[in-house]
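Subject: sequence -> structure tokens, single chain

Hey, anyone have a minute? Need the predicted structure for the following. Not urgent.
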Amino acid sequence: MTAEHSPHYHPAVAPALKWGVTLPLPGLTIDRHRFLVERLPDLGYTDVWSAEGGGTDAFTPLAATAAWSPSLRIATGIVPVHTRGPAVLAQTAATLAQLAPGRLLLGLGASVPAHVTDINGIPFDEPFKRTRDVLRFVTRALRGEHIAGDFDTFSITGYRLPHPPADPVKVILGALRPGMLRLGFTEGDGAITNLLFPEDVPKVLDAVGPQPPGKELVVKVFVCPTEDTDYAHRASRPFLAWILNREPYRKFHEWLGHGELLKETHELWAAGDPEAAQKALPDEVVDGLFISGSPEECRERVLSYHRPGVTTVQLYVSLPPEVFVSRARLLDTLARLGPAAR
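Reply:
Had a minute. Here:
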């Protein structure tokens, strides 16, 4: 095993690694984030990320961030490709790019049926082809091209962005397995992956293959910075049981070689017993996929995801209630967790 593939490899001096935090923080509405966004660069963070499922939309937090910070990159990780039309996605990205020139990453992805069909009533049809088609449309539209014709999953009569971004917008894909990973790097600007163990990162990198300069590989890491293990498990186990039993993540972990580790929880979920499936989730999975401990301990474990080829770590931070007692406490926790910590 080479040094860079060791689980103890911490490339602290590597200049390329960027650190992002997902907003809004759970428990804090977006209107209460300005003080945090303004301080994030001082704490060493380079990015603000957002996501979209059944709660906050992906774009409003980024528009607010662009207004509050002149330096942070803003990024979606991810926006489902089924729930907005291709032209609407291109328009929204182009508008955000006007607020943050050269600082926007548009993360697109298939998402899961629960976010597409169950709450939006939209069929979750041909997710790979739909993602590929939207990627092709959006990248061309953001370059200012006129687009007309048939794609596999939709047809466009004719569209051109009236004001394409002057500075390039990177378009990356939420990707779990080789087909989507390769698509992100061959036709897009990279990929974002998540809910994996540090030792899984080399397999993802192998699937990606050689990375041209300028491409992004983002690893999203879930963190609960508390030494109260019982609280951390109560906060993370329901989410992990739910998401790991979605088909894309079940197949992802089977590909990674964790099928046997998750077999019992999958069987119980399929049998219609989500409570038992949650209890059957091994502690090593809960601790490995939603890391907890002191902020310093969490930071060390976050660094174990950094391998050559990983450009950004995106943190989803679930904070215990006591951290919200003051702004100073919240900022101190993120400072100790983040890249500027000593």
